[in-house]
Amino acid sequence: MSISDKILAKHISSTYTNKKNNIETSKIEKSVTPGEFIQVSVDYIMVHEQLGGRIAPEFQKLGLNHIWDPEQVVFILDHWVPPPDVRAAKMHQRANTFAEKYHIKWNFGQNQGICHQVLPEKGFAQPGRLIVGSDSHTTTYGAFNCFSTGIGATDVVNLFATGELWFVVPETIRVNFHGNLHSNVLGKDIVLQMLRDFKTDGAIYDGFEFGGEGISQISIDSRMTISNMVVEMGAKNGIFEGDKLLADWLRAHPPPTEAPSTLQTILQKSARPNSSKTSYSAPISPNTPRFISPEKGYNYKKTLEYDLSEIEPMIARPYSPDNVIPVAEMEPIEIDEAFLGSCTNGRLEDLRIAARIVKNHTVPTDVKFIVIPASRDIYLKAMHEGLLEIFVQAGAMVEYPTCGPCIGGHMGVLGPDEICISSSNRNFKGRMGDPSSQTYLASSATVAASAITGHITSPPQEKTRI
Amino acid sequence: MIHNSPLFSPIVEGRVWRVGDSIDTDLIVPSHVLTEQDYTKLLEATLESVIPNFAKQVQKGDIIIAGKNFGCGSSREEAVFVLKELGIRAIIAESFARIFFRNAINLGLPVIKFPASQTIGKQWDKLRIDLIQGTMKNLNTQQIFKFSNFSPFILRYIEKGGAIQVIKERLHL
Ligand code: SF4
User: Do A94 and B103 touch (CB under 8 A)?
Assistant: First the structure.
């Protein structure tokens, strides 16, 4: 079995029976085959504003006075925080009312950042887990050797009511990375290269599995970007093998044991490291993580090899994330906005390299350079490292963690015909504002380089790795 | 299988709406209406930048024929909800994005994967689909197309009009 198969098999629901549910399989032993319909129990269900959208009213139609397991549910507001208008505020109220009424245990409120950054930071994403979320980019947690994918509102209702969900076991595409990355190349460039090769429908229903000795070259932040954007190729998930880098990260982000109110206090304390810029002061878990590895000789749907040394800075032109070419081949198109943030690239790695590029430069007055760290934790760390100051000095607008411009919600909505270079993941028509606006997707390094020149610009080669 | 749901009709008959590849969820339901509690606002905005006035022109029973990767993008179930609510009774596409496909099954809207979707018919043709037999007949050209039958698992959701009914039965609600 592939890593994904193993995790799914482990989560096959114990109450699952063939006859009763009329499901076309008789397997209840812990093994799965691609294409098979299975009924699974999940470890965590992440919900955001959608809770106040379709989830709450649909669940209430059932007339149940409890949800299956409030301890499984992680709730966080992130898309429209703080609310830019009355409608968004009301949506938050509906979501909050539901969360309180049904005693959702992991209620993180609206000041922690974007869900896909916060869940791993708080230790929810652990190897071998099965996590679903009411957001398509829930695939991000694949970076942590766990199976995670996006689901819709009725799926969440199903889980809230029965604790179970149907899945079709995906076929697995294996990707092996080799070689060394160039200094100005990030996970975003790798996944854009993959999008160029696979196109947006090249992996529909499939799962990606990433490994090879080259993964040691890819930071956890960059792996999250890759897993985040596998959904842009239609994939169900994108899971990385475990290694030392991941073990270190996991030790620094142990699984949660306390509900958020207590957790917040711990984090407030831990977010003020005394000296070292890179140290995390969360408690060290004594356990070595138990990674899930694929079965030797497993028959993948496809196996691809990527030589990291051949990957260069890439950019996706409007209106599709697969409309990709090397940045070097781009005309120097003038931009109105540069957005550095989102669950794809608002991490510390991104802020560090961008700050290095914009330091001692000034953003042209006709360019809106918007910087939004992906989480409160990153915001604090960037503040301590002096990165935010560099951005503000350069003329950027640094905002508090939210999805904001990525979804055309607030804090930088594009007007008619405006052109934006963005570190986010989607450049569909109208995604970031007016339908006539245009978004180019690129790495944080390319966004930063473009912000200071005012036109689409390749990032500089650095002497040392980012 | 016994098809005994009183609401379920295996025959869908309606006019064809032709759309292209990669109709994403932002195009189906733009995010500027997503925070709306009033569903009529969502309905009005459906596909607004692809087919102006779609919401006004669409009729109950209509069928969408699309190219590749229909419904790609976000997990917003509203994308299925609005189409169903406006009267769309089936969507045929070369391929569907995964979450859209799930959401459609969960809301009981038949989604038919048919690689040669472009050959079935043109805009405004009349189409009759038999969901059980797995056939589509273009009533203008009299051509008949066969698609692979729904699995019993998926057919059950379609028959019941969606997952909510299945959950209710399971929990005896
Ligand atoms: S940052 Fe963008 S892609 Fe990520 S969760 Fe928010 S809206 Fe979705």
Answer: no
Q: Of A189, A223, A247, which marks where a domain is finished? A: A247
Rounded to a whole number of angstroms, the distance from the CA of A88 to the nearest CA of chain B is: 6
How far is C-alpha A220 from the chain's CA centre?
A: 12
Cα A444–chain centre separation: 15
SS3 percent helix, strand, coil of chain A, rounded to 5, is: 35, 15, 45
Does the structure show a pLDDT above 80 at A284?
no
Q: Which helix (H) or strand (E) holds A352?
A: helix A348-358
The answer to whether A90 contacts B72, with C-beta atoms less than 8 Å apart, is: no
CB contact under 8 A, B151 and A150: no
Quick: pLDDT tens for B79-136. Answer: 999 999 999 999 999 999 999 999 999 999 999 999 999 999 999 999 999 999 999 9
* B153 φ, ψ (degrees, to nearest 5): -60, -50
Provide the pLDDT for residue A289. 83
CATH number for the domain that contains residue A156: 3.30.499.10
Model confidence at A19: pLDDT above 50: no
Mark which of A247, A272, A296 sits at the end of a domain.
A247
Residue of B nearest to A150 (CA): B75
Residue A367 has φ and ψ, to the nearest 5°, of: -115, 130
Q: pLDDT tens digits for A69-128? A: 999 999 999 999 999 999 999 999 999 999 999 999 999 999 999 999 999 999 999 999
Identity of the residue in B97, B106, B162 whose CB atom sits nearest the CB atom of A204: B97
Cα–ligand 1 centroid distance for A138 (angstroms): 10
Tell me which residue range forms the domain holding B77.
Answer: 11-170
Determine the distance in angstroms separating the CA of A453 from the nearest CA of chain B, rounded to an integer.
31
> How near does any CA of chain B get to the CA of A314, in Å?
21
Structure tokens at B134: 């797995």
Beta strands in A82-146 (DSSP E): 106-107, 130-133
Contacts of A358 (CB under 8 A, 6+ apart): A369, A390, A391, A394, A396, A448, A451, A452
CB contact under 8 A, B77 and A63: no
Q: Which value, to the nearest 10 degrees, does the dihedral of the CA atoms of residues A326, A328, A334, A335 take?
A: 50
> Do the beta carbons of residue A338 and residue A354 sit within 8 Å?
no
Residue nearest to atom 2 of ligand 1 (CA): A406
Residue A463's pLDDT is 62
Q: What is the dihedral of CA A84, A85, A87, A93, to 10 degrees?
A: 60
Same domain, A222 and A325: no
- Judged by CB atoms closer than 8 Å, whether chains meet at A53 and B78 is answered as yes
Tally of structural domains, chain A: 2
Are the C-beta atoms of B94 and B120 separated by less than 8 Å? no
Q: What distances in angstroms separate CA A309 from CA A176, A192, A217, A245, A431, one per listed residue?
A: 13, 15, 10, 20, 33
Q: Which string of DSSP letters, residue by residue, matches A34-52? A: TT-EEEEE-SEEEE-GGGG
The CATH number of the domain where B68 resides is what? 3.20.19.10
Ligand 1 center–CA A271 separation, angstroms: 24
Terminal CA-CA length for chain A: 35
Task: Pick from A76, A134, A137 the residue to mutate for probing ligand 1's pocket: most ligand atoms within 8 Å of its CB.
Answer: A137
The DSSP element (H or E) to which A164 belongs, if any, is strand A164-168
Distance from the Cα of residue A213 to its chain's centroid: 23
pLDDT digits (tens, 9 = 90+) for B53-94: 999 999 999 999 999 999 999 999 999 999 999 999 999 999
